[in-house]
Specification:
The complex is a heterodimer. Chain A is mainly α. Chain A contains 8 helices and no strands. Classes of the chains: A mainly alpha, B mainly alpha.
Chain lengths: 187, 177
């Protein structure tokens, strides 16, 4: 009888039990295994065994590298010299926040520091006050400028209609009509 | 200057991961420390050559390759030990059907027992198991680190889980003898 029960748990079911116990299975598989476990004591025991193993594996305490070894490695690599500059400090700080993006972290750090110091240390700008005479003079100059620009546009319009349209374009168009007429009459 | 900042960051992030993986592969702390030192020195030498975002994978691949090299060099010394392990594994498979699951489930598995059981896995199974279950790497990452197909990773993880269970059952059986 015992042997017959063992045969009920085939390899596929064991695979499913393992993946459910380890948390890899989908919802359907999970329901299937839980349902099977609820009706079969042997499956339940097997499932519990795996769950216990998973629990222990996931709780395993990890070993840590000893400090003397890290010091030795630092001596063999960077020469044990730690940069204490301001930029180094900033980049390390943002490095630890942003993770393994060295250059963006440093750049962002510097930008933020510059922006912050600019905002903090910036002196409030003083608005310059103009005298009445200065304002009138500016208005006068502005009007003169507008007049000059207006005159320039007028001149440009005149020269365009007289010089370019009449002499250059119309003359050539007339010549073209003349030629077409000649060809048509001739034909 | 940036190189040393990068290196400091990498050491801080990955030193324990490398060390733990090496311990499981080498089965002793001294060799694991040697491997860790070697990996970190190589990282420093190549700090400007590899893609920084892929540093984790690069370092683990280097760790794995160094472990395999060390194990191959010391193969003659370990040969006897491996033979014993293989006989032990056969015994476990044979005794699997006889074990009592209730007894197994009732007891608490200690850290040392589970570590021992993991260490007894073959290199092929142990590497994927440690990377996936203990170091939380993804299938794809493991496939790249160990340079094996994705399906092989999945199959090896399943096999490792089964074998680990067998090892623990054997332990439990020995206890109740």
């Amino acid at each position: 009888m015992q042997k017959k029960d063992s045969n009920k748990i085939d390899q596929k079911l064991i695979d499913k039990i393992i993946s459910v116990a380890y948390g890899d299975a989908g919802l359907f598989e999970r329901f299937y295994v839980l349902w099977k476990a609820s009706i079969d004591k042997e499956i339940k025991n097997l499932f519990d065994e795996f769950k216990l193993t998973v629990k222990t594996v996931r709780k395993l305490k990890k070993e840590e590298v000893s400090d003397p070894l890290i010091k030795l490695i630092n001596n063999n690599t960077t020469g044990g010299v730690q940069s204490k500059s301001f930029i180094s400090f900033i980049s390390k700080f943002f490095y630890n926040i942003l993770g393994n993006r060295a250059i963006p972290a440093t750049a962002l750090g510097l930008i933020l520091v510059i922006a912050a110091s600019f905002l903090i240390f910036k002196e409030p700008s003083q608005q310059r006050k103009y005298s009445k005479v200065e304002i009138e003079l500016a208005e006068k100059q502005f009007k003169q400028t507008l007049a000059i620009v207006g005159r320039a546009f007028e001149n440009a319009e005149k020269s365009f209609s007289l010089e370019i349209l009449d002499k250059q374009v119309n003359k050539k168009l007339n010549k073209g009509y003349y030629l077409v007429n000649n060809i048509l009459i001739g034909g | 200057m940036l190189s040393s900042v990068k290196f400091d960051f990498l050491i801080k992030q990955h030193k324990n991961r490398i060390f733990n993986y090496a311990i499981f592969m080498m089965k002793n702390k001294m060799d694991a420390e040697d491997i860790t030192q070697e990996v970190l020195i190589r990282t420093w030498k190549n700090i400007n050559n590899f893609n920084f975002n892929a540093a984790k994978g690069w370092m683990m691949r280097t760790t794995h390759n160094l472990c395999i090299d060390y194990l191959r060099k010391n193969k003659s010394l370990n040969y006897r030990e491996m033979q014993i392990d293989e006989e032990y594994q056969k015994e476990i498979v044979d005794s699997d059907m006889e074990s009592n699951p209730e007894q197994f489930a009732d007891k608490i598995i200690s850290d040392s027992e589970i570590k021992e059981a993991i260490e007894k896995l073959s290199e092929r199974l142990k590497s994927v198991f440690v990377l996936y279950e203990l170091e939380q790497f993804k299938y794809k990452e493991i496939s790249k680190i160990l340079d094996i197909p994705l399906n092989t990773v999945k199959v090896n993880i399943l096999r490792a889980r089964k074998q680990l269970q067998n090892e623990l059952k054997a332990h439990a059986k020995e206890r109740f003898k």
